[in-house]
Amino acid sequence: MRTGPILAGDGKRTGTGTKIPVLATLILLACAPPDGWAQTDKTDDASPTAAVGDLASPDRKVHRAAARKLEANWHPGFAPMLVEIFMLVPPGDARGQNVLRLLRKGTGQNLPADTDRWWRWIWNREEQLHPEYATFKATLYSFIDKRFARYFNPSPPRTIRLDEVIWGGVKKDGIPPLEYPEMISAAEADYLKNNHIVFGVYLNGEAKAYPKRILAWHELFNDRVGGIDVTCAYCTLCGAAVLYDQKVGDQQFSFGTSGFLYRSNKLMYDRQTNTLWSALEGVPVMGSLVGTGLQLNRLPIVTTRWKEWRRRHPETKVLSLDTGHERDYGEGAAYREYFATDRLMFPTPFQDKRLKNKQEVLALLLDGEAVAWDTRFLRKRRVHQDRVAGQELVILTDKSGANRVYDATGITFTRWDRNSRVRDKSGRQWEATETALVGPDGEKLIRLAAHRAFWFGWRAQFPNTRLVK
Asked: How many domains are contained in the chain?
């Protein structure tokens, strides 16, 4: 997650760990203890929440008294609290050194001043949270955005570890979603070059293209395509654009950017209940909707090149540069440094070196089974058949490298022209469309909802994923 329009500015690193915007730190230190914390925290002065907050106090006496109090009453659940304070204290500040000293003594771990290392150590242990941890997070992050408190206070039902919900460096909707954005014709989109990456959507006969160079600055859009209200969550950090139908049964949701991450993956929130949702799974993970069984329906989306999408869909609409926001929408302008290396901006609990962190995979989640195909593997196999959760499927990769996945129940496909014609082993010719494979007798094998992702992000969300490379 990147510094957005509210917390714009250069980033800094606490030690060698997670990147946090400078302005965010200044906001915290300007509003923080002793007075600010006491006004927000309704617990008594002896509470751990107040004591941990006092560690950020500019008053040395208050700071030292808090450290002594915490050391004398050490609880394993203090560790994530202290790391979150440490993330927001400027490098070299005496308060940070004292927090680090307390962390080392309390945990018995002599780790360096690297928040990523501390988080990995914490996340690879059994969750041991202090009873006031949710209150602490609500208090801490309300100094940055008062609306953040609603995510954590009172302690919400959840399906993920609370200490893995990490602030991404922006306020709520600080990276502004596109709301039913202006679209233009393909002929009018003279700002796009043939090789520019777009996310293509085709529903009920309507085609729309969302260029990566624009969506990277917004990370989420709410729109209507083919009469369906949809949300696309694009996590730039994990390289995944996932399209969802906003309607679940008789309930309609619209979504925004929460400002928080889980394992470097975007957490979105719904505007109806303020529940946090996984952008990769489309399920509520923290808030009032947890336990309801709600799950958003994934819809097909393809990552392709503008030339190829326009050739297939000359009638397509495409995002206008007139988004209502001032951004440098030049190709590669957003996240240039992040995409240029294999380094991560935020930590995950583990690393899997079978592929490089940001190697793209084609990702599919079907009936709880997760699979990732290395896109380099698929480029060498224009037709690839597989089975996921008992479902036979075929992956077709075109000349641009775009992948589409279809039901292949009972059919073995052998050849395709990387355009529209596919042949099965019986020699019958099928037509590959955006919605289905259409047989010579009119039979249809539907397209399945897969999408691209960076390997590290998919693996972090789905540790048991099968990898095909």
From this structure: 3
Q: Is 171 inside any structural domain?
A: no
Residue at 286 is within a domain: yes
- Output DSSP code: residue 15: B
- Side chain identity at residue 442, one-letter code: G
In this structure, the answer to whether residues 49 and 116 fall within a common structural domain is yes
- Cα–Cα distance, 208 to 195 (Å, whole number): 17
Residue 28 has pLDDT above 60, yes or no: no
Give the chain's mean pLDDT: 90
Question: Which residues span the domain enclosing 115?
Answer: 11-165
Q: How many CB atoms lie within 10 A of CB 410?
A: 8
The pLDDT tens digits of the residues spanning 367-415 come to: 999 999 999 999 999 999 999 999 999 999 999 999 999 999 999 999 9
Angle separating helix axes 115-123 and 78-87, nearest 10 degrees = 160
> Do both 291 and 415 map to the same domain?
no
Residue 268, domain member (yes or no):
yes
206-211 and 413-416 beta bridge pairing: unpaired
Helix H, strand E, coil C: the string for 387-454 is: EECCEEEEEEECCCCCEEEEECCCCCEEEECCCCEEEECCCCEEEECCCEEECCCCCEEEEECCEEEE
The answer on pLDDT for 196 being more than 90 is yes
Tens of pLDDT, residues 214-257: 999 999 999 999 999 999 999 999 999 999 999 999 999 999 99
Which H or E run contains 360?
strand 360-366
Residue 255 near residue 271 (C-beta atoms within 8 A): yes
